[in-house]
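Thread: Newbie trying to understand structure tokens

Hi all, I'm a second-year student working on a class project, and my supervisor (Dr. K.) asked me to get a predicted structure for one chain before our next meeting. I've only ever worked with sequences, so writing a 3D structure as a token string is new to me. If someone could post the tokens and maybe explain what I'm looking at, I'd be very grateful. Here's the chain:
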Amino acid sequence: MPRDQRLTGTAALRPLLSLAVVALATMLAGCGPETETAAPQARPVRTVTIEKRTAGIPVTLTGRIEAEDEVALAFRIAGRLIRNDLNVGDRVEAGQAVALLESQNERNALRAAQANLAAAEGQLVQAQNHFERQDTLLKQGWTTRANHDQAKQAMQTAQAQVDAAEAQLKAAHDQVSFTELKADAPGVVTAIGPRGGAVVQAGQMIVRLARKDGRDAVFDVPGQVFRSVPSDPVIAVTLSDNPRVTATGRVRTIAPQADPVTRTFEVKVGLTDPPEAMRLGATVTGRVETEAVPIIEIPATALTRYNRHPAVWIVDPSNQTVSIRNVEVLRFDQVQAAVSGGLDVGEIVVTAGVQALHPGQKVRLLGSEP
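---
Reply by user tm_fold:
Sure, no problem. This is what the structure looks like when written as tokens:
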């Protein structure tokens, strides 16, 4: 056979030889031992067993110090203010004038009332004299009963005019006195209104006066707090900028109506022997324990999120796997979280390693046998 024909036959057998080699390798591989898949290891986690305990939930609110008896002094009439030179913190005595209004118009009205009274008294004297003459003539038979009755009526009218003039004079005296604003009791000035030269209206606050040494801690309290605190609770009050300054007190008054904007109720807590550092207007913090109720508390590290809500990982003790469950959190801080729903007593909750878990994952409780 020629050489070129032998080479052509060998080239034709090469693809068949390659397929045979591949098939033989596949058969040899199939005859070898099967590769075993490694089982996933159980992830170690720390857990806590759920139990209930009885405890009160602390409620903390921020408030301010006010005088126990505070009043806003104001004029009874409108006018131009000519003096109001007190300052916040000044002490005033009972009866001390704290502000003055311009009183020229009121004094002119007083003089007019005095003149009207004098004229009315003169007419009364004249009417009395005329009546006395008519009364004498009637007894002697020299006048008629009609003239006598007319003189008596004129005297009574003059007396009524005198009474009216006296009342007007008293009102004029009051108007003059209303131009001077006086403190009705000793106290300390806590706020100042308009200064001299301003035109003020009747009832407008000119000076705010703390009339007694007693002090209140005033808080704006949401309505739901009233349903959870015990009756007549003791309130612990601390100074916001110095927590070492403390005092205690009890609720003295509760506003009968909620604030139309904040929907909270103003509560005044009467302080018992407040320290000097709790000055009027100081910011304070009040703390009270709600009524003790059974609650579930877990470490804050147990909380995660699922479906945009707080959740925890629950361990199934039968197969040592975990599942995630949403819970209702009543309150929480950096250490503890109080759960109001979603957990039952005796359940096992993962407290460490929650970020690396997935549903159905097998776990090993730290401290237990692997």
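A couple of things are worth pointing out once you decode it. The first strand starts at residue 43 and ends at 49. The CA atoms of residues 59 and 288 lie 5 Å apart. Feel free to ask follow-ups in this thread.
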